[in-house]
Design brief:
By secondary structure, this protein is an alpha/beta fold. It contains eight helices and seven strands, in the order βαααβαβαβαβββαα. A seven-stranded mixed beta sheet has the order 4-3-2-1-5-6-7.
Length: 169
Amino acid sequence: MSELRPSGRAWVFGDGINTDDMYPGFAMRLSIPDASRHMFHASRPGWPDLVKPGDIVVAGRNFGLGSSRPVPLLFKELGVAALVAEQFNSLFFRNCINYGLPAATLPDATKLITEGSTVDVDFTAGKLESGGRTHEIAPLPEFLRSVLAAGGLFPQLEAAGKLRPARGE
């Protein structure tokens, strides 16, 4: 599956999941691989050991509220293919796109998608399938799809020659 048409097992979270829970303060001193082992440390201990590459995180309202921690890097480190929420904190949504992690809004997502079910998302056509039912999501505009296709905003800017690659590359 391409990054704009992921298919994976659903992990369902509730409303108001904040960046402090996803990326605990103590983990911010760690490398991204090590910090990813502490995702949801307070609310769902052990989750990083259960999630598999290609899985999709589904959440309720105001997913990602709080500080501008680089949480999408942790999801990507664990292999999470996409996020679907009833509502995203706007800064968090944009961080997802900037870090190359596809995200979609689906009203009532936590009622329509069951944990463990398979979710198929088409970010171009604006469709999500789960449990034998198809739901409409807002298709991502071409501009955002181009950022995702490049792997995120920094890789896109580097490829266009508008930003020097980070040292060591």
